[in-house]
Amino acid sequence: MPVDTIHQKFLANYPANIPLRRFSRRHAGTAAEGLAVRLADNGAFVGFAVQHDPKGRAELLALATVEEVLLVDTDRPSEFLTFDKPFEDLLHGETYTLVGFDMGRLVVRVANDLKLRVRGIDLSTAFRANTWDPPLPADVIKSRLSQGVNPALINSIWIDEQAPREMCLRAWLAVCVAENNTLALDSVKRLDTMFLSSQEVTFLAELVRQARVLEAAKPKETPGEFTNVQLGIDGTLALQNARYKTRVRRGNQVDGPFLL
């Protein structure tokens, strides 16, 4: 398979260019088998991310190790899946543990669209006692991987979820966090669609699909009255209002129009 590269500028101590291999759904088993051979005993986790089509269906899957990313196109013909078991075992968590951010949504959507069991760890809630208030991905990466990251830069790849490059980077960052926290993740409960009936998977997947379609319809840009915007190294913004000689006060949330 042809090998491309993805450029990352989030983590200074990791390779800047990550090999990317593309596979059709028909060859997903071959992709998973090759991944297992190359990974061997050098890792316990595989990063996982999903790109959805405009209707909310899982269109592309990203499977990542620290050294590479595999991109599986689920939208191509899949009639003759004669060698699919390695791919199924990977999604089942039989060979390595899948890890990702917002994993609850991912597992039910993929389980419904591909009709396969999916099992993995949600990094958004893995390190918190209160799973009802998950942190942003950048907060997890900063506290569990590298203090020197730019939070705004990292969180930006979750804004445009329709871009394959950003999806691959989400999977890659997930596995980097996991491999750096192996002991902490040993006792974390896995999300597993095996414990859901087919009706429950269908119902939850439809809720996720509708929520994603509504999120995608939200405007990414609104008019503002700011003459100056400065981005700090910690990801905070200093905004100068055009009407008033004041700045937006520092805080976790401020009501008003912003350019995302």
Order of helices and strands: EEHEEEHEHEHHHHEHEE
Distance between the termini: 37 Å
> Quaternary arrangement of the chains shown?
single chain
Largest sheet: 8 strands, mixed
Mean pLDDT: 84
Spatial shape: globular
Compact overview of the structure:
33% of the residues lie in helices and 21% in strands.
Structural description of this entry:
There is one protein chain. 33% of the residues lie in helices and 21% in strands. By secondary structure, it is α/β, with parallel strands linked by helices. The two termini are 37 Å apart.
Secondary-structure topology with pairs:
Elements: E1 3-7, E2 17-24, H1 28-39, E3 45-52, E4 58-64, E5 69-73, H2 85-92, E6 97-100, H3 103-114, E7 119-122, H4 137-144, H5 151-155, H6 164-179, H7 182-185, E8 191-192, H8 198-217, E9 226-231, E10 237-241
Parallel strand pairs: 2-5, 3-6, 6-7
Antiparallel strand pairs: 1-2, 3-4, 4-5, 7-8, 9-10
Helix pairs in contact: 1-2, 3-8
Question: Descriptors for this entry?
Answer:
260 residues, alpha/beta, eight-stranded mixed β-sheet, two-stranded antiparallel sheet, 8 helices, 10 strands, 21% strand, disordered C terminus
